[in-house]
Every structure is written in structure tokens, then in C-alpha cells.
Design goal:
By secondary structure, the chain is mainly α. Helices cover 79% and strands 0% of the residues. The chain has a single domain, classed as Helix Hairpins (Orthogonal Bundle), CATH 1.10.287.
Length: 169
């Protein structure tokens, strides 16, 4: 039998941090869309026009994938919030029924049932203390540091591959 311990407040905080990341990514993708999708040719020749069109097409593909990733990210945030609400409501229902049971057992046995006999909430049993804010800050920094150069390197690689294919090499 598996046992799951969750802290709904931590799940909600993580979802909030992920929502902040989501909004930052949306702003970055929106800002990058116009200059990359509508790339002007460097010169008036056919090769420059073809390369500009190729890079614009790759930028459009990237924006489409980024849109799919944003939709997945948004769904993940919604599921995380729903999970937090579900854990919180289940914990409240369990605590309520345990208190009712303790009260009825105590009245039948004639014993005094104080709150010390009640189980502690799952949040007090959670052995892992992770600051999701710190983790998400590091992930955003890594994403920002790596995403720009990687996208440029990817576009450059595709450009070189297209040129080599065009030249028949």
C-alpha cells in the first residue's frame, strides 16, 4: 500500500510560482515573435530572401511549439491547483470524521478525549522541506541563459544545413 503525504499550501505556492514563470515566458515569446517571424532579408538578392523566409518559417514553427508548451504548462498549473484543493478537502473531511469518531468513542468509554489523541495533519508529517521559489528561480535563470543561445544555435544549424543542401553538399 502506498502512502502519499502532501502539503496543499506548498502545492498552491508551487502553482503560483509556475504561473509567474508562465506569464514571464508568454511575455518573452510575444516579444520575440515579431522580430523573428517577420525577419527582413539582409539584401535584395534571392539567397537573402530565401534565408530570411527559411528563418521566419523556423520562427513560426518555434512559436507553434512554444504555444503548445504554454498550453501544457497552463494545464499542469490547473492540475496542481486542483490537486492542492483535493488534498485540502480530503484532509479536512478526514480530520472531521476522526474528530467525530474520537468524540463518540470518548463519550461511550467515558474517557476524556483531548485534541492530543487526534492525528496530526499531513502537513506536519511532511519530511521534505523544499523552497519552490528557489527552485523555480534557478529554473527560470537557466532557461533564460540557455534558451536564447540554444535557439540561435539551432537556427544557425538549420540555416547551414539548408545552405549545404542547396549547394548539394
Amino acid at each position: 500500500m502506498s502512502c502519499v503525504m502532501a502539503a496543499p499550501a506548498m502545492l498552491t505556492a508551487a502553482a503560483g510560482d509556475l504561473a509567474t514563470i508562465d506569464s514571464s515566458l508568454r511575455v518573452a515569446h510575444t516579444a520575440a515573435a515579431a522580430p523573428t517571424v517577420g525577419l527582413a532579408p539582409a539584401a535584395a538578392d534571392e539567397v537573402s530572401a530565401s534565408i530570411a523566409h527559411l528563418l521566419s518559417r523556423h520562427a513560426e514553427d518555434y512559436q507553434a511549439v512554444a504555444g503548445q508548451a504554454a498550453a501544457f504548462h497552463e494545464q499542469f498549473i490547473e492540475n496542481l491547483n486542483a490537486g492542492a484543493r483535493s488534498y485540502a478537502s480530503t484532509e479536512a473531511a478526514s480530520t472531521s470524521s476522526l474528530r467525530s469518531l474520537a468524540a463518540s468513542t470518548g463519550s461511550h468509554a467515558g474517557a476524556n478525549t483531548g485534541s492530543s489523541n487526534l492525528p496530526k495533519p499531513a502537513t506536519a508529517l511532511l519530511p521534505i522541506t523544499i523552497s519552490f521559489k528557489e527552485v523555480t528561480d534557478v529554473l527560470v535563470l537557466l532557461l533564460l541563459l540557455l534558451a536564447g543561445p540554444l535557439v540561435l544555435a539551432w537556427l544557425l544549424f538549420l540555416l547551414i544545413a539548408q545552405i549545404l543542401q542547396f549547394l548539394g553538399l
